[in-house]
Protein 1
Amino acid sequence: MNARLIAFEGGEGSGKSTQAGLLADRLGARLTYEPGDTPVGQRIRATVLDPDHPEIAPRTEALLMAADRAQHAAEVLAPTLAAGQHVVTDRYIGSSLVYQGIGRDLGVDAVWDLSRFATGGLEADLVVLLTVPEDEVDRRLDRELDRLEQAGADFHRRVRSGFEKLAADHGWAVVDGFGSIDEVHQRVVAAVEAAGIALYPS
Ligand code: TYD
């Protein structure tokens, strides 16, 4: 079997994690996430999202995300795919391109090079971008915020438009994330089928 890597991308409160989980169940895939899916990644995550360290520089942030991704790829993604199992990851390279490349203004190409180095060139076979209207996100994000979520309205506006631009440039599947969990899941399934990834009948 040709095991595939599917990445979910989107802003905070887009419902990615829920939809990634549902799709992983449906595909019998391994469900992973970034940052933090490995023991070392957990330590990197705790550092990079720590609200007590607002001084973390953009390049430091990009390198920490890349370090987490390198460990994720080596310890989880590559071995799982090599064993023939699909992987669904909640965030991958696209998040760095958008948050660090565009949001932090480090440049998409520079950040792409970093991710390529981190993963040895392992790219997602399908990227699903979940979009939700801004006021719906505000409603969903009524909780304590981590360091990146606290980054400010202008940063998040850049992230939002960055996701849309990259999706258009790179042929990501854009899925409307507004609706019931099941409605959105059906849209995700349709995008996966359209990408030629076989699903078992449910
Ligand atoms: P997380 O708590 O996993 O939330 P969610 O994915 O549901 O938003 O937060 C991860 C945060 O890290 C999120 O603000 C996006 C950010 N991030 C980057 O800035 N760059 C990256 O490469 C990755 C993977 C995540």
Protein 2
Amino acid sequence: MTTIEHVLGDITNQNVDVIVNAANSSLLGGGGVDGAIHRKGGPEILAACRELRAGHYGGGLRTGQAVATTAGRLAARWVVHTVGPVWSDTEDRSGLLADCHRNSLKVAAELGATSIAFPAISTGIYRWPVDSAAKIARTAVEDAEIDLIRFVLFDQATYDAFTRP
Ligand code: APR
């Protein structure tokens, strides 16, 4: 039985096994939640990302894919980096946004994680409308088998969108 929670707060403070990062394909950091995770988690995370880029992820991480690294100084055990789709008015990329959630859950399960925290992927710099993202996220995780899924929303409007029935 999976418990799904919604909290208004900072994902870098979450004491869960896996914190999901809304990264970009370079895996080398950025703004938003990516910046917060690297800032709070420390250089070990970036070092692990650089190793991924030097190895299997030479070309970077594709949109919708997910990969784990150490969580560095964060309370979590791992960070799972995923690349959300940039919002498009002309192309339906909702499958890719759903993939971010499903692939992050898959990586978390492979690690043996029992709890995972998601930010509102793609709804910041990538401009995905929050109501749409909330629906896609909710559907994408509905058949998850992990004990705890926590959506950590950074502002009230996003929290309201994710908790609206
Ligand atoms: N905790 C939780 N949520 C956060 C935090 C935080 N510390 N900081 C930002 N957010 C929220 C934003 O308010 C937004 O609701 O995360 C959501 C996703 O926004 P972004 O971080 O901008 O991510 P995204 O829209 O997926 O864009 C990804 O931004 O940071 C860069 O390197 C990243 O290029 C990539 C792009």
